[in-house]
């Protein structure tokens, strides 16, 4: 098929940053802390407030799919992290799967019809598996939003290490907890069973196992709050510090301790070394005492990234892996060391690279895919010394990859996604607002939020030079972030069926068996709250256990909507629901159709949980908002221009299509943002 019109640019890169929002960005811009974003604004076009009107619900796979197709969620069908399992009201279907998308992505048109070499890089919205046979289309990941290979490559979980000369013997404590508020001791309550790592357990299970259908009935606040409490999965290693004995190469004053890896069966000897002043300040980790060179050398308070080693997987196979080492503290007299060793990632996993040769090119020219940080967000030391620096490292690696492709003309179009801001928002922003609950330092956490935005600005700065190399660059996001200000009312959960409010209102009833498993009493359940924004009636003829006669559906919907608006937070007396409407009426916000509930609702400001359950126009704590961001610069874009137009997420794909001279995606519902283009439409 021929091009539809003359292209305004030959190269386009979308620099997507998950959770990156305009209100905070404006705050830091005004303070001079985001100079690179300011340069994009000066060289390009945007609204004065930088706002992109987000589609809804404000959840990751839904909105990245909207950005790539130009279609509203009700049209493309990806309406939450999980989809509706038709007929089964107590289960969900994992939605980060391109085969569940009903709309055409622009990247297929660019690759197939415009003959443009196109890269889709870790885009968590209907990008994987690949949906085009064109050799021009290359795709990396897309099965989850965290970091590349997170869902498939982990072969060993993180280790918390405490070495001390007070320990008589070594201990390996699997799956222990580090819920320690404030900046106190890193290790506490080490024998508690750990529940989660900041990414909901249901989601982690779906990603790692490849499960399509999951069942997650959320019956209380504590269950629903797990994903924001930032607990971390880790084994605890306690190791005695002793005089170094039997080493092929060790200074006379060196001390030794042992790191236990894997399932507690693999060991790495470590030396504790003095500096010239006689202060113990360095750890060397070896494969064995016979080796002359260490695997890694790390000073106290420092980190080493992508340390390559081997580990045995669950089948007993030896796997080459990389992981991060963080030396948190070393006592000057060498009496104690605390460390965090990151999860180990199998470096052979090219499963989610298409073509697989792309993976080899990346590791040959840039290096192995780095680990994501898995830490306890309630602990300021871990956020400060591990989480943010690890994302610094990942951002550098990803920028190295993408700019390598741009510099060497590997692609004409790049779609890219980075998850640093959203990951931080879920992990620790609650601890900034609710310091009275977790005994945290609000000022410190506000500083962490600022550092994540400065980190993002540094990342954006890596792409600025390419504006002068003929690239049109669009900086955007899926949604913003705003931590929940009023805790305790959970009407919906993006990955589960939430029961407390629906039980309280009399529409659902839960029974618990002798093993503590929760099930619906279907004979007494008229409706369920499924995922983050949807309520389904238990209809006869449609749902397996239906009890509601379809002729009563309209009246029951009316009653439920009325009760939602009347529902008040028991603590504050305030209304919890901002908007509730029938499926047929939700077409005006792009959320009608079979993948949306019989009733669609959104929470009031201050009751949203980070994002997902809120209107995309809402604001929140500490100058945050739920809106995504939009700035465009380069060929085809007016320079130094501000538009008053409301730019919608559905407009991104049509604008890119017009810039590239190709037709709009078949199901696109947006239009080109012609006000910012150098050529009039």
Automatic annotation (TrEMBL):
Q: Which InterPro entries match?
A: Alkaline_phosphatase_core_sf, Phosphodiest/P_Trfase
* GO MF annotation terms: hydrolase activity
Listed SUPFAM superfamilies: Alkaline phosphatase-like
Return any one Pfam family short name. Answer: Phosphodiest
**Gene3D superfamilies of this UniProt entry?**
Alkaline Phosphatase, subunit A
| Record's protein name | Type I phosphodiesterase / nucleotide pyrophosphatase
| Organism this protein belongs to | Desulfosporosinus lacus DSM 15449
